[in-house]
């Protein structure tokens, strides 16, 4: 059996679908299944068992001998949430329990970290583990992910294989339930569909023109391919960046969305909300050489390719991955 936590969410549900494509059908999905808004993400997928996240460790104590791999991708991902206790509970302490169980039962583990750990990027975007304790995230979410990375690296007891993945700006099908935390592509599509135009955040940094803020946008189909690779690879434990390796502007993202929808561009700007303005990242770009160095060879979707696939094959027809 393969365990996927947070399984009804965006990236994990896509991973369940990708596992099914390779005939991995004994999937145990772990989540808070009382949240009905995510129910479509697992519809039609081959799943062996549904386990509530509150009961997961009791379940694992009883079934660990059958578990081949754990993808711990469940987390609170709201970067505008500032209650540290929420992140300590769901992102830090729960992850420590997963890690310790994988050590005790010798189960290989892939877990979700985040590019939010890099903060303003003053130390760059290299996944060099020596610099991780020096990073200064800009919000409690980033802190929780970095705190766990630091804790994991400090442990003398480790799973025989483990990898932490620093997800950059992931976009793609199955993110519809994320509300304001869904990708700008998703919001762009819906704004264009509703009113034929799109509003981006204005730049409050003199080094960047409006719409020229840059992110490393990575398509979810690339994310799940890396997860599959690591499940089979099971060597070279450590923490890895997972982006496209190429920063692109929000303007390029919006223009590609208009193009995929066959609509003439109409873009306006609004002030970045004060609540996030001081902690806003103007540039992120993953150095992907570390993952490449252990043998991952697949090319990543370009922004043009990813947006085109997402819009035409999922958003317009209303399909899930």
From TrEMBL:
Residues 2-243 form the NAD-dependent epimerase/dehydratase domain. It comes from the Bacteria. It is an enzyme of class 5 (isomerase). Pathway: Nucleotide-sugar biosynthesis; ADP-L-glycero-beta-D-manno-heptose biosynthesis; ADP-L-glycero-beta-D-manno-heptose from D-glycero-beta-D-manno-heptose 7-phosphate: step 4/4. Binds 1 NADP(+) per subunit. CDD domains: ADP_GME_SDR_e. Substrate binds at residues 169, 180, 187, 201-204, 215, 280. It catalyses: ADP-D-glycero-beta-D-manno-heptose = ADP-L-glycero-beta-D-manno-heptose. The active site is at residues 141, 178. Gene3D superfamilies: NAD(P)-binding Rossmann-like Domain (3.40.50.720), UDP-galactose 4-epimerase, domain 1 (3.90.25.10). This is ADP-L-glycero-D-manno-heptose-6-epimerase.
């Amino acid at each position: 059996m393969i365990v996927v936590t947070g399984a009804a969410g965006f990236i994990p549900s896509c991973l369940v679908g990708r596992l099914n494509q390779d005939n991995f059908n004994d999937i145990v999905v772990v989540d808070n299944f009382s949240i009905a808004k995510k129910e479509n993400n697992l519809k039609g997928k081959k799943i062996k068992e549904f386990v509530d996240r509150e009961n997961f460790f009791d379940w694992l104590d009883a079934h660990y001998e059958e578990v081949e791999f754990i993808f711990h991708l469940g987390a609170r991902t709201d970067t505008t949430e500032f209650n540290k206790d929420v992140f300590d509970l769901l992102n830090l302490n729960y992850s420590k329990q997963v890690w310790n169980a994988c050590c005790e039962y010798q189960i290989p583990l892939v877990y979700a970290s985040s590019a939010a750990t890099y903060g303003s990027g003053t130390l760059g975007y290299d996944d060099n583990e020596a610099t991780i304790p020096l990073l200064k995230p800009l919000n409690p979410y980033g802190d929780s992910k970095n705190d766990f990375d630091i804790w994991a690296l400090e442990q003398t007891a480790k799973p025989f294989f483990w990898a932490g993945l620093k997800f950059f700006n992931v976009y793609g099908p199955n993110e519809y339930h994320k509300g304001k935390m869904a990708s700008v592509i998703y919001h762009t599509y819906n704004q264009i569909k509703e009113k034929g135009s799109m509003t981006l955040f204005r730049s409050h940094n003199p080094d960047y023109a409006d719409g020229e803020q840059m992110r490393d946008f990575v398509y979810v189909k690339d994310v799940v391919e890396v997860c599959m690779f690591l499940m089979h690879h099971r060597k070279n434990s450590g923490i890895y960046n997972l982006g496209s390796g190429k920063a692109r502007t929000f303007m390029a993202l919006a223009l590609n969305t208009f193009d995929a929808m066959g609509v003439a561009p109409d873009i306006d700007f609004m002030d970045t909300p004060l609540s996030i303005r001081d902690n806003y990242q103007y540039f992120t770009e993953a150095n992907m050489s570390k993952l490449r160095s252990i043998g991952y060879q697949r090319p990543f979707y370009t922004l043009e390719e990813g947006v085109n696939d997402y819009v035409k094959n999922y958003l317009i027809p209303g399909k899930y991955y």
